[in-house]
C-alpha cells in the first residue's frame, strides 16, 4: 500500500506527461525551487516532502519511513548524481 502511494506521489509528473512531461516536471521544480537555480537540492526536496507529510503533525515511525521512502524515490531520479534534481531528471 505504501509503495503504491509513493508511486502515486512521485508519479505526479508522469500523469502530467499525458499533456507534456517537461511542463509537469518544470512546474514541480518551479514551485519548490527556493533559491531559483532551476534545480531541486536536498533541502528543497526535503521541504517538498515535509509539506506533503508534515513532521509536526504526522509523527511516529510509519511517517518517518514514509518521508524517507518518498525522498529516496525522488533521489532515484538523480541520474547524473550531482545532488540536484533537474526538470529533465524529474520527467523520467
Ligand atoms: Ca534550487
Ligand atoms: Ca541531477
Automatic annotation (TrEMBL):
Signal peptide: 1-17
SUPFAM superfamilies: EF-hand
Keywords on record: Signal
Domain of life of the native organism: Bacteria
Protein name, as recorded: EF-hand domain-containing protein
Annotated source species: Sphingomonas pokkalii
